[in-house]
Each structure stands twice: as structure tokens, then as C-alpha cells.
Target: 2-dehydro-3-deoxygalactonokinase
Amino acid sequence: MMHPSDIADSGEVIAIDWGTSSLRAALMAPDGAVRERIASPDGIMFANGRRFEDIFRALFGEWIARHPGATILASGMIGSRQGWVEAPYAACPAGFEDLARGLVFAEVEGLAKVGFVPGLSIEHDDGVPDVMRGEETQVFGALASLGVSEGVFVLPGTHSKWVRVEGGRIIGFRTFMTGEMFDLLRRHSILGRLMPEGAPKGGEPGEAFDLGCELSGSGTLLHHLFSVRSRGLLGKTAPEQLADYMSGLIIGEEVREARTFFTEAPSPVYLVGRGDLASLYRRALAHYDLQSAALDDGVTFAGLFALARTHRAQMKV
Amino acid sequence: MMHPSDIADSGEVIAIDWGTSSLRAALMAPDGAVRERIASPDGIMFANGRRFEDIFRALFGEWIARHPGATILASGMIGSRQGWVEAPYAACPAGFEDLARGLVFAEVEGLAKVGFVPGLSIEHDDGVPDVMRGEETQVFGALASLGVSEGVFVLPGTHSKWVRVEGGRIIGFRTFMTGEMFDLLRRHSILGRLMPEGAPKGGEPGEAFDLGCELSGSGTLLHHLFSVRSRGLLGKTAPEQLADYMSGLIIGEEVREARTFFTEAPSPVYLVGRGDLASLYRRALAHYDLQSAALDDGVTFAGLFALARTHRAQMKV
Model:
């Protein structure tokens, strides 16, 4: 694993985190510092018939004109079959060098070459496959930022990932559909109807969240979720607390199960993500006696930067 | 428990199963035989501003004119707070007589009196409340039809119920959001997008369903569900099999958990419901070594009939 400071002599890096619903990018100096940022709603599901190449030209033409020698890398769903250029999944265990070797480059005519980061695939012990795309870059970025080469990384979100790293390589991971499940139930189920519209969260999670975590200790969501309704109907939980309670049930079940796959892992667990979600996870992790340390999601840019350097080093060999 | 044949000397019964999305009714002879049937899409969520009383008059005026002395009972969501007249939940354990005593009657002016069947509520050992409304009538109908006074009854559906009966009383039950969960995931999640539109089921469940059941043996749906996506993406399960696989995962998890609450129960488990759903459940129950016997959902009318007789007997005392 190379640390950004070891390789600060190369050129600029344009790091693009191009996901399903949005895009974030950074123009990074040769020493890894972020000089400029772009945030755009042009996620791959919102291209609406526009070519990804045209979106790219419009967003990045100016940076590239200023820094024609920059290394340009994109991670996330843009490298999937539904994206711009498919970068096939690399198999776990996979280290930084494997990921760099799996980069797939495409020429944007007359402008630049763009490298797409591969996702990772794994087959669990029970023969079931699992995949990630985008989170691998965050994890390697976290390793580079922290200067560590092992640990458990939790990346909450639509499809929450738990990732085990040993010797600088991702040796295992598990996906949980936690965020999507919450969203489906909130927006489309009979449970959502009992919850006030758009109640802003704000502040720390409360007692209702803890109650949900507590109940998640055994049994199954399929049963526990119905208690959101029965508590609401019988007046045992106030309507504005029901979403918090449901969140505790779902995140609690994720943590309960996930920790059984990572029992040998060192403490603390590293939590990568947005502030409000991270604070819910910290609370659920604590409920299950797991210590955690929070990292912000700037680690994606750090990951892309380190990957660009590793790629350059591989090219020189 | 009275058997219909003990009390065949009273008048006709109009039995109404009035649920969320539809309504079914039977005009029953004094001996319990179904003479005529009505099926209508006028479930309580489709009233669209019409008064329930007006729907009732339009559907049942003619039957009542012919049989002015008939006892009229309605079970299901029509007796909920969102329905016509609320019949408060009776607490478990509850027997047939408790249910009959909990009937709430309303006068439809100049036409008839209608009795609404109460739902049941329970507090589980972990302090969590649970409720049912409509299924209690099916279970008591099944008891009357089978001439038994104990057993475990499984009522698959949007909110699947497992009900334990001892000495003719419902002593416990658990709800699982199985049907709604399947529907949410099929219609609104990223998993549904991989499944062909409106693939007709038809025939027996296949290997993909069994594979889902197998995987449900440990762990959590939150994780297993993502394998619907990874199997689809990696070509390990064909698109037209993915819904069956997902169904096996969800129903399997229900059965895995539910049976732990009913370990002392006699065999077979009684399965009440539609043919195609019943065949999925029979397969999942067999996977978990539970013997089952299937009952059709005509048991609702048998339950309302027996309840009408019990009510008349209570009135005479």
C-alpha cells in the first residue's frame, strides 16, 4: 500500500465518484490536496438519454484544459453494465494493486482518457455471490487516510456494506439492503401511512430508536416490523417516533447479523458515511457492544488518488 | 364450542367478509349451507368517499328483503377504526364466546342491524403488542369445520398470521409482513427491476423457491435479499426464476422463525388460504419438517355462521 505522500511527484488527479443518483468530483493537486470540487445531480439514473461522454465533457472540460496531464479516474455505478464503460468485477480477496490492474480505460476523443474502477465480487461460504461497486474505493481510501492495513469497515447506505480487510486486502464483505428497506417501508408500506409526512429528523436518535435496537436482538424483521403498526394503532409509540423505532429495528438487525461474520476483527469498527446516518449506526453498534470510529466520505477521493498513483507506478514497471 | 349442526333451528345468516381490498359475502341457510354468494371490489380502501352504509344497502338490500329475520355479521377491516363501525380488539386468550360478546351492532335505518366482529390483540412475552382483524373469524370457522379445539393455524397473506389454539381458545399469535414485503420488493425495489414484467406463476413452485428456502435457514433477509440481485447480475439465476427465489427467501424466513414460537403444537399445521399461496407455504413448511393440511378460505363463512349462532344463544340466556 502506497501512502499519498510517498508519490507526491506525479501530476494532478481528477477523482470522480459517479453513482446512481449523483456525481461528486475533485481536482486534486500532486500532493493529494483537494483544490476544487464539483457536485452534480447527474447520477447514471438521471442521464435521461444524454450520453455520459457529453455529461463528462460539460462537467470536466475546463479542468482538463488547465491540466491536460491529469490522471482521471471514476468509481461507482458509472463503471457498471448500466453505466458508461463496464469495468468487470474483480474477485476477492483483492488488494490495491489488483484494483489498479482492473482499471478499464476509455478515450474521450480529443480530450482525455478516463479510467473506470472495477467493482468487487465474492462467493460466500454458503455459495451465495455478493457484489460491490464504489465502496471498494472508499475502503482503500480509508486505509490510505488512516495508514492502516486491517480492520472492519461499515459503509451504511441504500445497500449497506460490511468489509473485512487484512494485510491491505479486502478478504470478505457482506451487503445488507438496510437503506432501501427503510425507504420502501417508509414510502410504500402500510407502516409509512402511520408516520407524519416529512418529519425532519434532526438531533440525536432517541428512545424509540433504542427500543427498536433492543427488539432486534432476536427474531426476524418480518415479524418485528408489524409492531410498528400495532404500537401505532394501540398508542404505545407516538406517530412522530415510529420512523425512529422502525429505523432501530432495521439497523439493529443489520448489526446483529453482520457482527457474527466479523467476530475476529480488531476494534474499533470504522464507519464511513454521512453524519446523521453515521450517528444512528454508532448508536446501534454501541448497543451491540461494538466500538466505532467515524470517517467522513472524503475517503472516496483519497481512494481514487491513491489508485491513480498505483496505476502510474504499475505503468512505469 | 357449538357445532353448526347443533343449532340449525335458527334463521338465515348473512355472512360478510369485508376487507381492505375486497368484499365477499354469503347468504346461508339455517343449516349453514351457502345458498348465494356476492363478491365485490368494494374493499374499505376503495370506498372513495361513498358511505359504507350506502354500499351495504346496494349490495344486501335484496337479500334482507327476502329474509328480514336474518342475522347479519361482518368481519375484517370494516370493523376497524378506518372502517364503518369500530369493534374494539378483544384481548387474548379469547374463545368463541368472548368474540360473540364483543360484537358491536349498528342499525341501518329502516333496513337491518349489522354486527361487527372484534379483532384480537395480544402482548407477546417481550412486551410487544400484536393485532389481527378478520383472521380470528377464519380460525374459529376452521375449528367449527374440523370439529377440533386445538392446533396451529397458518393464514398466509399480506400480513401472514400464525395462530395457536388450545381448548377452543386462541392463546397466542404472531404476525409476519410476508406478503406485503414480497409485494414491496417486487414492485418498488431494485430487485424487481431484474424480474420480467407480470411473469405468470402457474404450476408448482420450483427449484429456485427451494434454493431460497434453503438459504433462509440462517441469517437475515436484509442480507439474503441482496443475493437476488447478485445472482441475477452474475447470471446464476435466470430472470424469470428470481421472483420464485425471492419468495423462497421470504416465506422460508417466516416459517423458520414462526415455528420456534409453536414448538409444542400438535401436527399437522392447518393452512388456510388461496391455492397458489397455500402450495408455496406447504413446500416451505415441508422444508422445515412441518406437516400441513390445507383448508380453503370458505372457513370465514363457517366462522361467521357459528358466531351468529353463539350470539343468538347468548341473547336467549
